[in-house]
Write a structure and sequence with these properties.
alpha+beta, Immunoglobulin-like, 3 domains, four-stranded antiparallel beta sheet, four-stranded mixed beta sheet
Length: about 425
């Protein structure tokens, strides 16, 4: 037989009597609902309480700390049928859940007696840990010339995650996300390093480094900005030669030094009315001016001015100027390669000394000799993109000091320089200075 001990009966009675006075005083008209329970043999026991309230806007009284500690829920507004004599009305509800426990068998028999025990609220599940902080270390980047190899960014994240890069100054430099920098122009290049984080690490604060992209610096043997080969650095200027395949018709296109247009100057004259095959390119503006101009035309640094002077004489022919492809200087100036989207149009016919420097470079590209060119071309250079033909001379833009009917040329087979008739068709190799 199952029995209940006196103290359990007293516990239930005491709890009921303790709460009824509170309910009675709070409920309008003393209307108090009784307890209802679930089957004690099946599940935990749930007790409910309801108390009437004056209307839909009437607030429910807050439960005391003691009530909440025992396990009661707080009062919540609702509607129930039992209020107002079964006509329904507004109420406040609360509930408590009791778990069942077992006690030893009583002296009069065996079995268990359920004891209502408050079910403790479950402990809150711990949430995920917040992402850890990380930082970026970005070493300084060295200044460099626009034509030099760019620096390699070496940023790293304290998390060991991969850092990404972006350029803040794309007109000066670009960079791939993995850090390959391309120099575009002179100026200040700024590279941003970032790390976006993951489930373990929060995003890092971006870090930037800037460096200066200076004007190009070239050495002998470099590829120049015009796509040519640097063969001479002199007087603060750097000279590059065009490749041997520059010509519009064939390798190192051949042409006469000038035409016989009657736009040159007789000895001692300032009238541009004499044929250019046998007369001076320069006027006698003062005594000795023709001789001085001819002598100056031989020097390094004079090739561009010489080319301008020749073109001026050919353009002076009226009504139609001489076609530029009909004379050596015009051919050289007409070379206009496009390099990195830019048309390079300032090529010229080299002076006598500039042509000799080209010959010396062909002898030893590593350390070009000085003085008059002698010997033969370096084998590797001769067969490369800039090698010279040895079966004919190349024109310079310098008129001969020995005779106004001659201009200087040079044979690259043995380095010989000499004056040759202006109407002779020699090879042409353009150069430019920057």
């Amino acid at each position: 037989m199952r029995t209940r001990t006196h103290f359990r009966v007293l516990l239930v009675a005491a709890l009921t009597l303790a709460f009824l006075p509170m309910l009675s005083t709070f409920a309008p008209g003393g209307q108090v609902a009784g307890f209802t329970t679930a089957s004690p043999a099946v599940a935990d026991q749930i007790w409910y309480q309801s108390v009437g309230r004056a209307g839909t806007t009437a607030a429910c009284q807050a439960s005391t700390a003691t009530d909440l500690a025992v396990g009661w829920t707080d009062w919540a507004p609702s509607w129930a049928k039992w209020v107002n004599g079964g006509n329904g009305g507004f109420v406040c509800n609360r509930q408590i859940t009791w778990a069942f426990d077992s006690v030893p068998p009583s002296s009069s028999g065996s079995g268990t007696t359920p004891i209502p025990t408050p079910t403790p609220a479950p402990a809150p599940e711990p949430g995920p840990a917040p992402p850890a902080a990380q930082s970026i270390t970005f070493p300084t980047l060295a200044n460099t010339a626009v034509n030099a190899p760019p620096p390699i960014p070496g940023a790293s994240a304290s998390s060991s995650l991969t850092v990404s890069y972006a350029s803040a100054t794309t007109p000066v430099c670009t960079v791939t996300t993995v850090g390959v920098i391309t120099l575009v122009a002179t100026g200040t290049c700024t590279i941003n390093a970032s790390q976006g984080g993951n489930s373990t690490f929060a995003a890092a604060s971006p870090v930037s480094q800037s460096f200066t992209v200076n004007v190009a610096v070239y050495a002998i043997g470099d590829t120049g900005p015009g796509g040519g080969l640097v063969f001479l650095i002199s007087g603060g200027r750097t000279y590059e030669m065009a490749p041997k395949t520059w010509g519009v018709a064939s390798t190192d296109t051949g042409q006469a030094w000038t035409t016989n247009a009657a736009k040159c100057y007789a000895a001692g004259s300032i009238a541009a009315s004499s044929g250019c095959f046998f007369n001076n390119l320069y006027p006698e503006t003062t005594a000795g001016a023709q001789a001085a101009s001819t002598t100056d035309s031989l020097l390094v640094g004079m090739g561009a001015a010489n080319t301008d002077a020749i073109i001026a004489r050919m353009n002076a022919l009226t009504p139609t100027p001489v076609t530029t492809t009909d004379y050596a200087a015009g051919l050289a100036r007409g070379y206009t390669p496009v390099v990195s989207g830019v048309t390079i149009n300032d090529w010229f016919l080299p002076s006598q000394d500039e042509l000799n420097a080209m010959c010396n470079y062909s002898r030893n590209p590593t350390i070009p000799p000085t003085g008059n060119c002698t010997g033969t071309q370096d084998d590797t250079f001769a067969t490369g993109a800039f090698g010279f033909a040895v079966d004919g001379p190349y024109w310079s833009s310098s008129q001969s000091v020995d005779s106004t009917s001659l201009a200087w040329d040079q044979v690259f087979g043995d380095g010989t320089q000499s004056g040759n008739n202006k109407f002779v068709s020699n090879r042409v190799r353009p150069v430019r200075a920057f």
